[in-house]
Design a protein that fits this description.
Blueprint lengths: L2 H13 L5 H9 L20 E4 L2 E3 L2 H11 L7 E5 L5 H8 L3 E6 L2 H14 L3 E5 L12 E6 L8 H5 L1 E12 L4 E8 L5 E9 L13
Parallel strand pairs: 3-4, 3-6, 4-5, 6-7
Antiparallel strand pairs: 1-2, 7-8, 8-9
The protein binds S-adenosylmethionine.
S-adenosylmethionine (SAM) binds next to strand 2, helix 4 and strand 4.
Length: 212
């Protein structure tokens, strides 16, 4: 039903500089309207973040595309940890790219809504309710970690749970504005890090995140 709008959005993302064909293909296949409250569905293919309830948002498509592109996913079967399941859209995009997705959400209602939706749409995501700042040790190490809420620092447990050679994409800053960081794990103790210009995210709340 939204096929043309979806193609137009993909064109827009390409013009804005998204070049990873695997990301473009996945976002061209995942139906964003299914992850959005019914009353806002007509806005599903505008390049904007939208409210999903509980003061949370589904990220702007450009942000999803940009962060996913930074993960540099070049083969299927990679184990990716997402912090902040939210609507489930980012996890669905990663799943569409052939990743084995682990996703943690701290809001119980959003967690339930996302897991129900994954079941309904037949999307295989390992979803957990809890504090993502401490990661998911049971399934570590991860080939990639994507944090979809802004954090005051890079949580140590997430660094520990990244495989050597793996990438973490995480917004870090104060509560109002964050810089997007790309960390590449060089050894058990060393990381290369690159800062990407301003993006704004909702706060990451938890033991190693912001306090409520
Ligand atoms: N990836 C989401 C999507 O595709 O809709 C976007 C989610 S929204 C921008 C960020 C989410 O992070 C919110 O749902 C929020 O509840 C969640 N969050 C914040 N702190 C968290 C934490 N410590 N652990 C897990 N989730 C957290």
């Amino acid at each position: 039903m939204f096929r043309i709008q979806r193609e137009e959005l993909i064109d827009e993302l390409t013009k804005k500089g998204i070049s990873d064909l695997a990301v473009i293909k996945a976002m061209g296949n995942v139906e964003r309207e299914k992850f959005i409250p019914a009353t806002l569905r007509h806005l599903a293919y505008k390049d904007v973040a939208l409210p999903i309830g509980y003061e949370q948002t589904i990220s702007q498509p450009y942000t999803v595309a940009y962060m996913t592109q930074l993960l540099n996913i070049k083969k299927t079967g990679l184990k990716i940890l997402e912090i902040g399941t939210g609507s489930g859209y980012q996890a669905a995009v990663l799943n569409e790219m052939g990743c084995d997705v682990y996703s943690i959400e701290r809001n119980l209602d959003l967690h339930h809504m996302a897991t129900k939706l994954f079941d309904k749409l037949g999307i295989r995501v390992h979803a957990k309710y809890g504090d993502g700042t401490i990661g998911w040790a049971e399934f570590a190490p991860f080939d990639g970690i994507i944090v979809t809420a802004g954090s005051p620092t890079v949580p140590k447990k997430l660094k520990d749970q990244l495989i050597v050679g793996g990438r973490m994409v995480i917004p870090v800053g104060d509560r109002i504005s964050q810089k997007l960081y790309l960390l590449i794990k060089k050894s058990e103790t060393e990381f290369d890090s690159e800062v990407i210009p301003e993006f704004t995210f909702v706060p990451l709340i938890g033991r190693e995140g912001w306090k409520i």
